[in-house]
Amino acid sequence: MKRIGSVGAMLTLLALLAAGPVQAASEEPTIYVIQKGDTLWGISERFLKDPFYWPNLWAKNPTIGNPHFVYPGQRVRIFPDRIEIEPRTAATATGAPDAGARPSEEPVAERSFLVSGSEGFLVEKGFRHAGRIISTNQNREMVGDDDIVYADIGRVDGAKAGDRFSIYKRLDPVSHPVTNVILGEKVIPLGTVQLTEVEEKVSKAIITRSYREIGSGSFLLPYKEKRRQVALKAAERDLAGYIVETHTGNLAIGEGDIVFLDLGKQQGLEPGHLLYVLREVVPDQQYIDVPVGRLPPEVIGAIVVVQTGENTSTALVIKSIDTIYRGDRVEVKKSR
């Protein structure tokens, strides 16, 4: 993917295109007071017609703890090409009305994301499956829709005819891009199966749906509806981690792709948490006479967590300003 400029420049351009002709720089801004339920996503969508403007808001307003949650009573200045958040004052902290504020409006509904269930996940140490496909009809190497298979699930496991399972395949182990520690194995869904005849320790089943070729050795998990809406939610703690692998295995990815993270339930990560993808900015040493310390990172994208394991998770890339790579850093901050 070709780089498209800095975060600020790109998002400002989008905002300008959505807002129409630029008015005079001296124009007085419209003042809006945050209502209960407002988010930076919704504010950007309402006033600039571009919900993806919020990374710019977050980058320019470091006092905002959670990038998509703001508190009622907070004032924002609405310009034709940007939104600025005013510092918190005693009046806004108590929610006191503001004579110069714009009349209250209904908050914009929070954004949710549809996931298909084909995202996959990382199998961690201690993971236990429900069973395996141990044979196929006529010992065929690969099978698909409406084919017969046999599983090592029986009455002793509580199985009964009609039970449905999802079929998965393990791929290569995934190592951490910084520590090289093995985090687990990448898993992809292959399809679904339904038991038709159940014996004491084994069962006969029919493949009801196949996404990819299915063979013996594939493992099973109890079926759950895969297509679902994942809504954004506030994080309860600050978290930082890394993109450790991609669904496709490609090194470079962008909007709409799936990634796997080194954060999970044990770290406090939940489905719906929004994380920013950050990249360190390295100063040009030929123009530095004295140490300048660490520069503020560049926001290059955003991801939403759709599934969590104990120490890993699966996330959807919802915005990419620049190419995102395995090893890029991610961060979420709690609402303060």
Describe this structure in words.
- The chain has 3 domains: 7-108, no CATH class; 121-226, Thrombin, subunit H; 229-332, Beta Barrel (Thrombin, subunit H).
- The protein is 10% helix and 35% strand.
- It has helices at residues 7-19, 40-48, 54-60, 90-93; strands at 30-33, 75-78, 83-85, 112-115, 121-123, 131-136, 148-151, 164-175, 182-198, 203-210, 219-222, 228-231, 239-246, 252-253, 258-261, 274-279, 298-308, 313-320, 324-325, 329-332.
- The chain is elongated and about 75 Å long.
Helix coverage percent: under 10%
Question: And the CATH topology of the largest domain?
Answer: Thrombin, subunit H
Kindly state the mean pLDDT as a whole number?
78
- Gross morphology is elongated
* Low-pLDDT segments, ≥5 res: 1-26, 99-105
**What multimeric state do the chains show?**
single chain
Question: Secondary-structure element sequence?
Answer: HEHHEEHEEEEEEEEEEEEEEEEE
Helix-strand category: mainly beta
Q: Quick one: biggest sheet?
A: 6 strands, antiparallel, barrel
Please identify the top-level CATH class of the largest domain.
Answer: Mainly Beta
Question: Gist?
Answer:
The chain is mainly β.
Describe the secondary-structure layout:
Blueprint (H helix, E strand, L loop, with lengths): L6 H13 L10 E4 L6 H9 L5 H7 L14 E4 L4 E3 L4 H4 L18 E4 L5 E3 L7 E6 L11 E4 L12 E12 L6 E17 L4 E8 L8 E4 L5 E4 L7 E8 L5 E2 L4 E4 L12 E6 L18 E11 L4 E8 L3 E2 L3 E4 L4
Antiparallel strand pairs: 1-2, 2-3, 4-12, 5-9, 6-7, 6-11, 7-10, 8-9, 8-11, 9-10, 13-15, 13-20, 14-19, 15-18, 16-17, 16-20, 17-18
